[in-house]
Amino acid sequence: MNTKRIQRFFLSGSLEKLEDQEQINQIVKVLRLREGDRIIGIKEEREFLLEISQISTSKISSIDCKIVSQCEKSKGKELDFNLRVFLPLLKGEKLDWVLQKCTELGVQEFQFVEFENAVKENKNIEHKTKRWHKILTEAAEQSERVKIPVIHETIAFSKVRLRDQEIGFAFLERLEEQHPLILNKSEKLYPEIQPLNDALKLPLERGLGGNLMRQSTNFLLSQNARNKAAIFGPEGGFSEAEKEIILSKNFLPISLGKRILRSETAIIHGVGLIGFLGEE
To answer: What's the domain range around 224?
Structure first.
């Protein structure tokens, strides 16, 4: 049986007795599944093919299932590395959209940061966190992941730091105009990029060229590491002081091109590049 088209659910309780009312409503009232139909239950990063054996008739308070088969721990549906994203608290639906798409792209941790140029968005954080968790869960189910990303508490910019054995990338605007940043920084951490940088050191008027900048960026993003982190600034951009601090904390400066992107566009674009270039 082709299980890819079967609806997926992250289950926190028993595999054989579903009692989450929201999931029950979706199964019975939205999907209109009946006894004998099948779903995929995800628990502890494992997938189980379940067959509905009985739907409680008393206000549909529970659904009994039997386990048809059990899949091994998924290897192909998650990124090959842990990806943590530092991002601003964007306003309104922009943040909902970013969380949804980044989950589909494989992000495993979200860390909100208070930036100097960011609009303060701390109203009703507890209520928003519940909504965000629902967005992450549905996006993880849709993209056939076996993990729901974690949202950490908001931190001050001064608290941003890399973990041991974690490679960090800072996506900075107008990097082509300040190309020595990427050269000097990357040479110290990645000596093997030296031959490429020798070409990049040509004066701008002789043709820095997007081609060479792309090669340098692609090289850095494709580095094999079990833990990677990316930091993205707010709509107002990183302040000059924040740029200096980021680089002092060993984040590698990365370019997303010559155009100035909105924060949500930069985040999706950057996360997509890290996933695409970093996966085997």
So the answer is: 82-278
CATH of the domain at 43: 2.40.240.20
Give the side-chain half-sphere CA count within 13 A for 279: 14
CA atoms of 252 and 105, how far apart (whole Å): 21
Instruction: Look at the chain and report how many structural domains it folds into.
Output: 2
Are 93 and 152 found together in one domain? yes
Q: Helix, strand, or coil here: 259?
A: coil
* pTM (predicted TM-score): 0.83
Phi-psi region of 184 (alpha: psi -120 to 50; beta: other; left: phi over 0): alpha
CB 38 within 8 A of CB 49: yes
Residue 31: inside a domain: yes
DSSP bridge partners of 36: none
Give the three-state DSSP class for 113.
Answer: strand
Same domain assignment for residues 101 and 169: yes
Both tokens assigned to 233: 């600034």
Separation of alpha carbons 36 and 38, rounded Å: 7
Query: Is 145 found in the same domain as 46?
Result: no
Low-confidence ranges of the chain (pLDDT < 50): 1-4, 202-209
**pLDDT the model gives residue 117:** 83
Q: How far apart are CA 212 and CA 234, in angstroms?
A: 27
Q: Using an 8 Å Cβ cutoff, are 71 and 146 in contact?
A: no
The backbone torsions φ and ψ at residue 207, rounded to the nearest 5 degrees and listed phi first, read 105, 75
